[in-house]
Write a structure and sequence with these properties.
Elements lengths: L13 H7 L1 H6 L17 H14 L4 H10 L1 H7 L7 H10 L2 H18 L10 E11 L13 E10 L4 E9 L7 H5 L5 E4 L6 H10 L2 E6 L5 E6 L8 E9 L11 E8 L2 E7 L6 H10 L1 H13 L10 H26 L5 H20 L11 H9 L1
Parallel strand pairs: 1-4, 4-5
Antiparallel strand pairs: 1-2, 2-3, 5-9, 6-7, 7-8, 8-9
Helix pairs in contact: 3-12, 4-5, 6-12, 7-12
Length: 387
Amino acid sequence: MPYTLFPKKYGRVPSLKSIISPLVGASHDAPELISGSNRSLKITFEDQLNILVYFHLKNFQSGRHLLQDLQQNEFAKEFIAPSGGIGKSTFFDSLRERGLEQFLHVFQKLYKQASKQMPKEFSELGDLVAIDGSLIDSVLSMTWANYCKGNNKAKVHVGFNINHSIPQKIFLTEGTGAERPFVQQILEPGQTGVMDRGYQSFELFDQWQEQGIHFVCRIKSNTKKTCIKELPFETGSNIFYDAIVRLGHEGVNQTEKELRLVGYRIGDKKYWIATDRFDLSAEQIALIYKLRWNVESFFAWWKRHMRVYHLISRSQHGLMIQILSGLITYLLLAIYCNNEFGEKVNIKRVREIQIKIENEIRQLLLDPPELDSNEDLLTTVILQANS
């Protein structure tokens, strides 16, 4: 079903139009959001999407702050809020009950769109996906977000495409949710998962090799290592070990399949990296693991600037929608920064964008232009261009 994400005169705010225009191609075939009763929806999926992208772009402090803006800000009332206005219960009920399937669809389509447009780094290393989990503080009333006594947290499990510097997949669990099972759900055929010590599992190392899942995973330094064959490596580098090994204690929990183990040193600290990648040099394996830090940087930036810490819903359904809308906004900014500046997303550019949008909105409200009859065709033209 085609969605109309561009109201009349939206083109009068050029920066905002440029940022959100990829949403048309990503959402035009999304599943239809249907009312559960005989009454029509007071807030459609298009409304939800517009409102939540607006929330992340404008950096509101809370859901109530956003709602007040939608009710009192002239621009938001005309272009962002539903045509009949929006009430508190309507807004929060829509987050708690509807739209998750549609948001997932848009995120997945937008990721594919972004990955085709974004430059690909480190192509000589293969398709790399950093996999990690991150905790989000939750309030005590969010009983589903179990973590520990007197402290609730939710956990997001993210696959971050290192080559394109964009998030690829996302899952949400309670704070105590296990991380390892999500590796197989996150990785696509041919990709290499890059993981920290929390993902170390001798059983999974064997399973991944049987299933053709590539991995570069740091292991604990005290792990038992049985050398099968030493491999040559360049002397004078930070590499001190490269060999085919089995991990674990024989007869107890040892890996059945041989794998490669690379050791490298940074200062006084040693890193041990298990992998099934025999096609790369030891230096390249070390570099791949260092690139895992990109997902940590993403988590820090995303939480700080995409308002993940400011919960606007306490249900698991609503929090997932908030997270997805934040990731969608991040992808939109990534595409825009690449197209306009040839750069990755950075806070300097985001602030520039926010100021520019504010100035354009202010000018629009001070001097509203006459509508051109051709502007009614804006949505159709953009939809056709993105089909």
